Every structure is written in structure tokens, then in C-alpha cells.
Amino acid sequence: LMIDTCAAGWQKPIQRSMGSRRILTVLMFVILATWAAWVRIPFPGTGIDDANIFFVYARNISAGEGFVFNPGGERVEGFTSLLWVLICAGAVALAGEPERLLLLVNVLVVSFTVVLCLRSFVLAAEGDTARFSTGWKIAFLVLLLSDRSYITWNTIALMETALWGGLLIIAALAIVDEDDIRNRRPILAAVVALLV
Hints:
two-stranded antiparallel sheet, mainly alpha, single chain, 2 strands
């Protein structure tokens, strides 16, 4: 029995499709886990901790004030992710109150990340490889999505953690991919730029 990371398939989703049913199953489980975590929070709501800092910057950017915490104040970087501030600003521009839209974005990003993780490992064994591989994938899915802290932190908190997790998984898969490294350099450069 050998666990082997095989990231070659993540770059070619059309050629090596995981199947719509499996992707929708992951999405359904992430939605269910998010709901289960949300109802157990003593103060139901969305946006925890630094998410409110992102929202202030996003509202000010959307209102044309620029990257300021206080309108008319100094232009300072008081956030940890430029990309997430820009996504939040887009959500403010689209919805006014961005919380539900950003919750949806985080659920989709976590689902995408889980799908990449499930696609990335192959359990090689003599005999019925598919059966063993499916069992490990189900175990991974159950362990990950049963962690209420992970789900809360990556979805309900409305912070950039889901985005960072997804980008880090993409970078890790690009690094371990057995194909030619030269083909992955643009992907790695783009991911590093987005992470910074």
C-alpha cells in the first residue's frame, strides 16, 4: 500500500474530469458543514475578527475614498491581503452588504480547494485501487469537514483564509507535479503574486 501525490491531473480538468456529481457532492458537504458550524456559534452572524477591517477598507474603496480606514484619513495598508480587500470591494459594489456574497465566495473557494485536494492524491495498491482510493478520499473529506473550527475559520469568518488555503494548495500541486517545471513557472509566479 503506497500513498502517492499525483498532481498532474489538476491542470487538465477537462481531460481528467472528476465528474459533476462528485464536485456537487463536495459543494453540498461544504454547505452542510458551514451551516452546521454556523448554527453552533453562540452569536450567529457572519464576519468575525479582522473581516470587519476588510469591510471598512472595501466600503471606502467602493465609495471612491481609496485605501483608507477613515474617509479623508491617511492612505495606509491595515489589512493582510490586497486580493481579498479587492474581492470584498467588488462584493460591496455588487451587493452593498457583502456578507452573504462573501460567505458564498468562501464556500465555493473551500469546495474548490477540497476538490483539488481530493484530486491530488492517489492510493496505489495491488488489486482494487479505486476502492482504496475512494475510502481515503471519503476519510479525508469527513475529517476535514467535521472540524468546526476549520469550517468557521474558512467560511463564516469571512476572512481571506479560504483564499490563502486555495492558493497554497494550487502552489503545492504545481510544485509536486511531475510534469516539466518550466510549464509551471507562470502558475507559481501568479500564485505567489496573489499571495503577496
